[in-house]
Amino acid sequence: MKQRLAWILALLMAGCTVVSCGETASDNGNDNAETQHTPAQTEAVTEAPSVLDAFAGKDFDGYTVNVLLYDQEDSHTDMVTEGKETGDVLNDIVFRRNRAIEELCNIHLEAVRDSDANVASAAKKEVTAGINDHDLFFSNITIMPLASGGYLYALNDLPHVDLSAAWWDQAALTGLSIGGDVYMATGDISPSSLMTSSCLVFNKKLFAANDMELPYQTAAEGKWTLDKLAEMTKGLTQDLNGDGKLTFEDDLFSFSSWCYDSPYSLFYGAGGMLSRKNAEDIPESFRDLDKITAVYETIFSIIHGNESYFVTDIGQYPTTYELFANGKAYFCEIMLRKIDSNLRDMADDYGILPIPKWDEAQETYLSCVNGAGALVVVPKTAEDPERTGFILEALAAGSSEIITPSLYNVITKSRNVRDAESADMVELITHQRVFDPVYMNSISGYNFIQTMLQGKKTDVASTLAKSENSAEKALNKLVDAYLSIEK
To answer: What is the architecture of the domain spanning 198-368+419-482?
Structure first.
C-alpha cells in the first residue's frame, strides 16, 4: 500500500511539471509548442497497464455481491456511495472503483450499513445458521472474536487472494495473523482504514506568534521525536484570564488530546509494544519494561507535566478538536479522517505531522491504527469461495489504482492545509502502521497507558505486574483457539 501512496507526491509533482512546461513554451513564443513532442514526452504520456488487466475475462452473470459495513465515523464510505458522482472526492473515487469492478466481473455491488455491533452479530448468526446473506463484512475490532471463534474464512486460503500484493497492508497482516492464518485484512480496499492512521496537527498562527520554527524539516530529517514534542510544548499553556484555573473556554493550551486515542497513538508511535511474534507466527506477551517506562514518562510529561488539555470524559470528547479549531492549542493529536470533519471551519492555518518517534535511531515513523479501523472479513460459510476471492482481490487491486492515489485530496482538502510540506507528512504518516495483537484483541493490560494517564499514575512496573499473568493466559487462550480452528 505504501507504494501506492508514493503516487500522491508523484502526481502533485507531475502537475507542477506540466504547468511549468506550458509556461516555458508560452514564454518562448512557440505557437506550435503544444503539438511538438519529443520522444521522451511521448513516452511520458503512454498509459501504463492497469492492475485490473489481470482480472479480465471473468463473468459472474450479474451476481449481486452483498456487503454489510459498519457505520462508525463514516466507515461505510469504503463501499457505500450516492450511486453517482456528486463532486465529493471520496464518494466519487469509491463510485468509480465500484463501477469498474462491476463492469469487469459482471456483478452488482449491494452495500448496506449498520452499527459495528450489528455487523458482528449478523456475521455470527449467518454462519451459525449456515446461510449466505452477505458475501463480505467490514467492521472494526468488534469482529475480532469471530476469528478465534471459527466463524471466518482464512483469507490466506481463499482462492485468488494474494495477501503479499501491495494493495494489502502488510503491517496489518503481520499484526493480525496467528500461526500463519489471517482472518481479517485491510489495505487499499478500505480508504477509511488508511485515514484512521494517527497524526498530529499544529497551529501555524500560534507558532508564528511565538517565533517557533515549523517542525516540517525536523520531521523530514527523521528527527521528530517524543522528547522534541515534550520540549516544544513546555511552557506554552497559559492562564489567559488569570483566574488560577485552566479551562476550555478561557485559556491557551500546549497540546490537546483524548484519552481513548492519544495515549495509544503516542505509545505505539514511539515504538512501544506489548507483544512480539515468534518464528511460528505466534504472538507472545512481551514487555520491555525499561523502554515502556521511559516512553510513558515522556508521554506523562507532555500530557500532565506540560499542562495539556486531556479529555477523559466521553461526553466532552468533541472538545478535543474544538479547542484546536478555535485556535486555543498549539498541537492536537488526531486521525487523518477527522481532520476535515473537525477542522474544516478553522480560521487559522495548520499543518500535519507524523506521531513522533522515540528517538532518531528509530527506523521510521509509526502510526497507530486504533480499534475503529476497518477490517474486511469473509464468512466461513461462503457459498462460492472462488467467486468471493476473485471479487475481493479485484476490489482491493482496483482500489490501489483508483482510490488511493486520490486520497491526498480527501485527507488534505481543508483549505488551510494545502501545502506541499503536509503532503510529504501524509506520506510519512501512512508509511508504516502498527497493529499490536494485544491491543487489537483487548488482552489484559492493553489499556494500561490510558488508565494510568487518566489517574495521573506514574508507577509503570507495578501497574503492568498486576496484569502480567492474566495477559499471558488470555493471549495463550487466543492462540489455542486459532490453532484449533477446523478449516
So the answer is: 3-Layer(aba) Sandwich (3.40)
